[in-house]
Design a protein that fits this description.
The chain is mostly helical and 678 residues long. Among the domains are: 141 residues, Glutathione S-transferase Yfyf (Class Pi), Chain A, domain 2 (Up-down Bundle), CATH 1.20.1050; 65 residues, no CATH class. It is built from 27 helices and seven strands. The strands form two sheets. It has a five-stranded mixed β-sheet with strand order 3-4-5-7-6. Strands 1-2 form a two-stranded antiparallel sheet. It is globular and about 80 Å long. The N and C termini lie far apart (69 Å). The mean pLDDT is 95.
Amino acid sequence: MNNPFLLPYTAPFEAIPFDKIKLEHYLPAFEAGITQGKKDVEDLKKNAPSFENTIETLERSGKLLGEVSSVFFNLNSSETSDEMQQLAQEVSPKLTAFSSEISMDEDLFKLVKEVFEHEDRTKLNDEQIYLLDKTYKGFVRSGANLNKEDKEKLKEINSKLAKLTLTFSENVMKDSQDFELWLTNEDDAKGLPNGIKEAAELMAKSRGKDSGWMITLDYPSYIPFMKYAENRELRKQLNEAFGARGFNDNDYNNESIIKEIVALRLQKANLLGYTTYANYVLEERMAEKPEKVYQLWEELLEVALPKSKVELEEIKDIAKRLGDDITVEAWDFSYYGEKLKNEKFSINDELLKPYFKLENVLNGAFTIAEKLYDITFHKREDIPTYHKDVMTYEVKDKNGDFVALFYADFFPRDGKRAGAWMTSFRGQNKYDNKNQRPFISIVCNFTKPTETKPSLLTFNEVTTLFHEFGHALHGMLADGHYESLSGTSVFWDFVELPSQLMENWCYEKEALNLFAKHYETGEVIPMKYVEKIKESAQFLGAYQTVRQTSLGQLDMAWHNQSEIKESSVLDFEKEATKRTTLFPFNEKTTTSCAFSHIFAGGYAAGYYSYKWAEVLEADAFEYFLDNGIFNKEIATSFKENVLSKGGSKHPMELYKAFRGAAPNTKALLKKGGLIPIK
């Protein structure tokens, strides 16, 4: 069998041959990759220990396995099938076993330890020293110092966790895709804007209905319905279905899986000498320990919690003024929030969407990147993709040299999980005197074009695109030597800085003028709308701060336990979030059972990272605002000290090199309108 993974890539830039890869190619490629990886390590162990022989050689080992894994697991999120998910369940334990075998190889660890303790560091540069320390610490944190019995226990734990986290994610996806709300009565669709109705009509047709509107739990369908649908009972039904993902009485229930994941993570932490899983995780984060995370939350909640209750009273008040004699519940918040936003700012998504045609927004992101970082984007039709909707761009620097391949995958479909994310199909490195440039992708779920309209984005979708594009810039502009330290391979509470920083340009007139143009007339977005966007940026800011903090506290509650509580998932969640819960608790729903970030996506004991990074980005963008949002000197400093450096130094060192000082929460509180600007 001609397996494309085992043959030279012949597409331009040696791009991934998606057009040739079939499901049956993965397993043999994985097996070949594992075999090659084991041989790489055995060959390494024959050499005398040194930085070059041991650390660098280990860093470069397992190339084939890395390539196959990046393609397979990325597509398992964006273009999966039942067969692919079954294969993932089969492959994951094999990969975990291989990883455990390497990280617990006593002979290999002896060599690493020898280099760590005796290498002449004066002959190494900063990046080499960082790699050496990270490699040694990685072995220790993976169980290299454990006795034989405990190593076997850890291997078993890691294998179980690999399967459980996959199952968790699959359950959320299946529960989401199994739900549909089919509306045939015009009254049930009352309040929905025409564009949303047209998209829902197309969805109904795609699911075999000859009439009506289909509402799903995908964000482009769910969120507008919650904002605009006048039928309160249907809003409640949809809200409860969304909140019940992974919590329904069916084969996709995640309650027992959560308990098993949390218990196994605590066992793992204890084996490695930590009192909680959070302590284990945070040792390799900017926050360093749970106490610093709690301190961040206290600083935010002290200001945001009282204000959020005032904001909620405003929501209740407008419901009364509209003549609705109800107790405002969670399924009412977006609906009345949109009414209040209109009243306060005379602005809404339907007014703004004509100015945010997807292609224009994407080109705007490209133009802003060019102004800041001197890179350009050129569409290519000759690069293989994994789906017809995926667009590909060649990225060049100001000299015309190749920087990266950029893939953009924007629309929902069966087999694609909800949400938005950035990922990499190939990393960047400088091995063998070559600068291997990366292949970067962003994946989103925006409203598809209809028969009468292009894809028009809500303002929230605009910021989502810019957010993921910020991550992409971190990957594309990587310029390190070692791949494991390159691009977004940074501490998890630092990785959101470039993404969240990029969102800020969506609010600035100078940037909006570049791309916010009416899709029919070409008219640039009116200045009054820009002012309204900026004014409304702080709308319900305290509520959103409390919401994000609540999610972070729930995450930490699960992972900062030194003993596992016997309570149900529902009761545990109720207790963990009681301080920040602003609506009556609904026992038909949970957050935990669909909280893929922490139970499937790598954010365990790390969801606080979004708020942590907001502190950094608010401080960083204040620097731009004070000196011009397209200030070349500041942009170059950010590119050279943050974007290009990846994880080659401690992130606080990188941030201080860019900004000149450590950040504090004041810039964030000012930006959110929670404290006055002095």
